[in-house]
Amino acid sequence: MPKTSGDKLFERYLREHGYEPGAHEPDLAEYAIAKRPDFLPRLGELRIACEVEQFTAGASALERRLADQRTISASGKEVYGPIRNHVAKAAQQLKPLTALQLPLVVVLANPEGAMLDLSVQHVLSALYGNPTFTMDVDPAVGAAVGDGRLEFGRDGKLTNDHPYLSAVALLRRREHRADRISEIADEERGGRDPSGFDEATAEALQVLKRLDREDPPEGDYLYVDLIETVSEKAVPLPREWFAGEHDSRWRLRADGYFELVNGQRRS
């Protein structure tokens, strides 16, 4: 099949970060595998398999409802379903490649700007379960014991349904101009957040004035927020992959919380 815009962005990311993308949808008949992953990129002798899934603007029922209504309520299936469905589709494409003993990575891209939340926290909930607030209750007194906590609840099927997946990569594009605006805003803020509307407005005006006095850098760059899976059946993804200047990697801690283990946290 022809390359999608998501495929093209991911191929660009690979080349810009020193990986060799190889052929698009390589033929694996010599391994008796009928499925064709989007890419089998290499870094030296290290090879992985990647399937790129992109979202289509206006395709989800929730997005169509948001376009027609000012306020709506949405179920967990509507909110997280598009992400879960795309991961499941990519996973089925990669499943036959388990015989090759390669790290298997699903790449999610949104080049069309579909209306959905692809933040790390939201994708984690889509992968591992709807966010649920939990607290321990002492039945003797009928009151909570200790503080409540946010946990992953029902419908998180990644590890149970696709234990062979090594990671999910969130492919993103950002303009250099946006970075410069953030730098100027941080300088104007002086390490503290504005205390109200007036201060925020004054800061914004000052940022605009400074931008008028200089030529912000042009162009953009691609980066990845990588979420490692927690499956012991998956081939681990080497740390050399998705370790660019702007990339980040997230991993599950022993206490059940995901933490940023490499890179930077973005808002």
Set out the fold topology.
Blueprint: H1 5-16, E1 42-43, E2 46-47, E3 49-54, H2 61-68, H3 76-94, E4 104-109, H4 120-128, E5 131-138, E6 143-152, H5 158-161, E7 167-175, H6 176-189, H7 197-213, E8 220-228, E9 248-252, E10 258-262
Parallel strand pairs: 3-4, 4-7, 8-9
Antiparallel strand pairs: 1-2, 5-6, 7-8, 9-10
Helix pairs in contact: 3-4, 6-7
How is this structure best described in words?
The structure is a single chain. With 267 residues, this protein is of the alpha/beta class. It has one domain. It has 7 helices and 10 strands. The strands form 3 sheets. A 6-stranded mixed beta sheet has the order 3-4-7-8-9-10. A two-stranded antiparallel ribbon has the order 1-2. The chain has a two-stranded antiparallel sheet with strand order 5-6. Strand 5 and strand 6 (143-152) form a beta hairpin. Helix 3 crosses helix 4 and helix 6 (176-189) crosses helix 7. The radius of gyration is 21 Å and the shape is globular.
TL;DR of this structure?
The protein is an alpha/beta fold.
How is the biggest beta sheet arranged?
6 strands, mixed
Low-confidence segments, given as residue ranges, are none
Structural class from helices and strands? alpha/beta
Tell me the span between the first and last alpha carbons. Answer: 35 Å
Written as H for each helix and E for each strand, in order along the chain, the element string is: HEEEHHEHEEHEHHEEE
What is the number of E strands? Answer: 10
CA gyration radius, whole angstroms = 21 Å
Q: In order across it, which strands form the biggest sheet?
A: 3-4-7-8-9-10
Count of helical stretches: 7
Provide the domain count: 1
Strand content: 15-25%
Shape: globular
